[in-house]
Each structure stands twice: as C-alpha cells, then as structure tokens.
Target: 4-nitrophenyl phosphatase
Amino acid sequence: MLSYKAYCLDLDGTVYKGSEPIPEAIKFVHYLQRNGIEPFFVTNNSSMTQLQLQEKLQKMDIQVEADHIMSSAIACANYIESTHSGKSVFVIGSNGLKDALDGKNILYTDEVAEVVVMGIDLQINYDKLATACLSIRAGAAFISTNKDHVFPSERGLVPGNGAFTKLVEHSTGVEPLFVGKPEPFMLELIQQKFGFKKEEMIMIGDNYQTDILTGIRMGIHTAHVNSGVNRTEEVQQEDAQPTYYLESLEEWIK
Amino acid sequence: MLSYKAYCLDLDGTVYKGSEPIPEAIKFVHYLQRNGIEPFFVTNNSSMTQLQLQEKLQKMDIQVEADHIMSSAIACANYIESTHSGKSVFVIGSNGLKDALDGKNILYTDEVAEVVVMGIDLQINYDKLATACLSIRAGAAFISTNKDHVFPSERGLVPGNGAFTKLVEHSTGVEPLFVGKPEPFMLELIQQKFGFKKEEMIMIGDNYQTDILTGIRMGIHTAHVNSGVNRTEEVQQEDAQPTYYLESLEEWIK
Model:
C-alpha cells in the first residue's frame, strides 16, 4: 500500500500503547521507509517535547526527523506566531508546550495576558486557573491544545486537558479555539510546510472522534485501525465513514 | 412586616457585601429580633465554618445562634449523614466543609472513596481532581456544595466551585447532586428541624438564579431585594416571579 505521499499516523493507540510498541505498526513504518516514504506522526499530546517524542519512537526502533512529528503543542506555537505575534501570553501547560513556544521565541508571563493557551498541566493550581479566567474575561484569546476529557494513567482514567479547558470555559462563558484533533489544523500545517495535495495525504488512527474526524474534516482519506480506543464495529455505526478499515497496519505491507 | 415565622435571608449581596454590612438589612434583622423572631441565614458559602459565619455577623452587630446559620457545607454534612452513613468520603474543600463533616463525625480519606464531596478549595491540585474522578468512575456518589461558576475576589471574578465541579462532571460523564441553592435542600433542613409549615417561611435574597429560585422550588414565598447581583428590572423579565420586590429591607420595618 504505497498510494499516498503523506501517511499521518496517530501515536497512542496506533503506533504504541503507553510505553508498549504495537509491532504491526512498527513494521508498517519500516516498510514505508524502505520504500522511500517518511511518515508523519500527529499527536494531541502537548506534555512531551518534540525531542522527547523523537526519543520515545527511537526506543521503539523508529527513526524520524523532528519535523515529521506534529504535536498539539507545536501547532499552538505555530498558531500564536501566525495570529497573535507580539502579544503577551499566559500558559497553563507542561514542558512540551513551553518548549514549543520557546522554539518560536514566544515569551510568556505569569500575569494576566492577551493570549491564554492551555495544555495538560499536572502542576495545576488555583492561581493559574484564576489568571487564565481573569485574562479571558478581560478579552484574551483562548487557545487550547485539545479536547481530551481523560487520559489513561497507572491509576486509571484521570482528567485530561479538555476537562480543565471546560472549567475555564464554564467559568468565563467563552469558548476556546482547539488546535488539536479533531480540528484539522495540524494536518494543514503539514500540508503547507511540505506542499502536499489533499489526495496525497491519509490520516491513520484508532480513535474515531479524534483521528478519523480530523481526516474527514481535512477532506483527505482516512484509515481506522482496530488497535486502540474504538473497535471497528463502533466506528461502523458512525454517519461519516473512514476510507479504510484495518485490523492492523500489517495488512498494508505487501 | 411580621407575616412569617421563618425569614430565610441570603448573606452575600443581601445582609453584607463582602466585608461591608448592608445597613438596611442589619436594621431589619434587629426589627425582627425585637419582635421575637430569630431569622435564618442561608448561604452557598462552604469555605467558612458555622463559627466563622457567626463571628462575621457578630462584627456587623447581628447576634445569631449557630443553628440559625445554614451553609452548603452544613447541608452536605447532613446529606451524607442521612444518605451515605458509614461510607468512605473523599473531600475537595476548605475548612468550612471539613468542619461541617467533623461536626457529624464523618471521617474522610485521601484515597479513592465511596462518596465524593466538592466545595471551593483554593489548595486544589491535579491529584485531588484525579482522585475525585477515579472515585466517581468507580461508582462513588458525587455531591457538590453549589453551582457558582465564579466568585468575586480582589483580582476580579475567579472560578467558583461550580466550575471545578463541571471539570469533574465533564471528565467522568456523571452529574453531581448539588445541595446548595437553587436546590431547596437547605430550606428543607430548616423546615424539618424547626417544624415550620411552608406558608410560615419566606426566602429573601438578591440573586434570582440562587435565592429566588430556591424559594420557588421549595414552594414558599420569596422576596427579591435590589441590593446585590440582580437588579429589579432583570428579575421582572423572568417567567417565575418572586412574591415581593423590595428596594431595601428597610421597607419592611414598620
């Protein structure tokens, strides 16, 4: 299966599950690379830096250039650079988000600011949430990495960035702009940077509400792989259908 | 105006504004007391203990017995005692809530529990919110003091307990039981403890969505006083109307 130029793969649930690689996906990446195609990795994760994601993939025997890794943190930094250049920025988030902002030389403050950006932050506290709300009430742009209402941890399903974003939305009455999946913003960045046509791109993932909808909204082909959050039978109930269904990515190695 | 036996007064916006007493309300309380009527004070505030509220009123020249002060913290403790006796309890909240639970000899834990109770907590952190979500996902009862999405602070409008409760609701998909206004639970506790008939009770406050709706849902008379959150003209737009409109409580001193 070598019909596309840009294979955009989700990470968690598609390439790995937490710290465990999914062997069929690793084989598929190697197959693409043997045929001269460097896939893209597209993740809502904003807590890890591009380098940390690169090193995690390397441990799973996937060598990838940094600019083929697209996270919601990188997408946020791109968005702020292009739309809110020079404005003061207040960040709730982890190293991944701060590293991405640093990469674009975006300065951030601890005080009420003109732009609020939210990603998952395990060091969250009342004061940070108050500063975000006060900024937004004073008219700040409100940007969030993703809508994920939970994420899996060793303890079980714990609140994700989408839940903290909902708190701020509920308190202020202002809806955020989400840059992560299912918004197609990350795929648009890849398209713009590398000059792909839409028919040359495909989005591959396990999660209907994030991965598959992102591809559908982008207007590109999509493949659902039965290795993570949504089972094939669940996805078959949805109105808008993916282009392909795969039990595993090994099916596409010819 | 001495038509009722139980005058249930909201506090913030009705009797005082923050640390400033509202003189007409203080005079009205003295008028009731001179006529042998001890009013009740009904507040969504869960951060202050009954004693702290009593002392605050005392500084404003209002002497009141502790059992005439009903807060959402006290209501929570009553609810847990009557409905979830003996179950393990996880608390997000301030001294007011913990003090009310202590008053009912309800033991609480730092771990996943069978009952989760939420009130405003300026020491909130990720771990507390995760423990609340994990408990609720495992089937815990989910109780919250109130829906207040903001509260006024020196910095401006900052997130209230309702916003944090919304985070947990959004992450878990489970709706909480609110014991505070506009639910009539606090008025029911007063009714039960003192044996009032509904026609003997009146709820008085400045906030339509909390005070007036509480009285309407309880099926008792209500008075809106034009000293706080909602102006008279706003309240006049609502479908369900209060029994009385007052510019100030001085109008009722004869």
User: Anything to note?
Assistant: The interface with chain B takes residues 121-126, 129-130, 133-134, 137, 149-150, 153, 155-160, 162-164, 166-168, 170-171 of chain A (CB under 8 Å). The two ends of chain A are 7 Å apart (CA to CA). The CA atoms of residues 225 and 246 of chain A lie 5 Å apart. DSSP finds nine helices and 15 strands in chain A.
